[in-house]
Design a protein that fits this description.
1 helix, about 20% strand, Regulatory_FmdB_Zinc_ribbon, Putative regulatory protein FmdB zinc ribbon domain-containing protein
């Protein structure tokens, strides 16, 4: 069930879980009982950790404008055997 933010004029903001069909309706403040209006906030991406948010931003960027790679990065591939490279379906001994 989605969580929506609401703002009471006297008490401030509070979160409320409710069905999507009732998303636009006002809610009563849990502190004073007065009607509160829904506040539109950005998606919950701010609640992600910094590394996860960075990876999501990188993934979104690479969808439209991929980086041009000029150098090989990462670990080198394992050395090939005397009979040539080992196929990926063969287990090592």
């Amino acid at each position: 069930m989605p969580i929506y933010a609401f703002r009471c004029e006297g008490c401030g903001t509070f979160d409320l879980a409710r069905e999507v069909a009732a998303a636009g309706a006002s809610a009563d403040c849990p502190h004073c009982g007065e009607p509160a209006r829904r506040v539109f906030t950005p998606p919950g991406l701010v609640r992600l950790t910094k590394p996860v948010r960075g990876l999501l931003d990188l993934e979104e960027k690479s969808a439209d404008v991929p980086d041009v790679v000029t150098q090989m990065r990462g670990r080198p591939m394992p050395q090939a055997h005397a009979h040539g490279p080992t196929p990926p379906w063969v287990l090592a001994h």
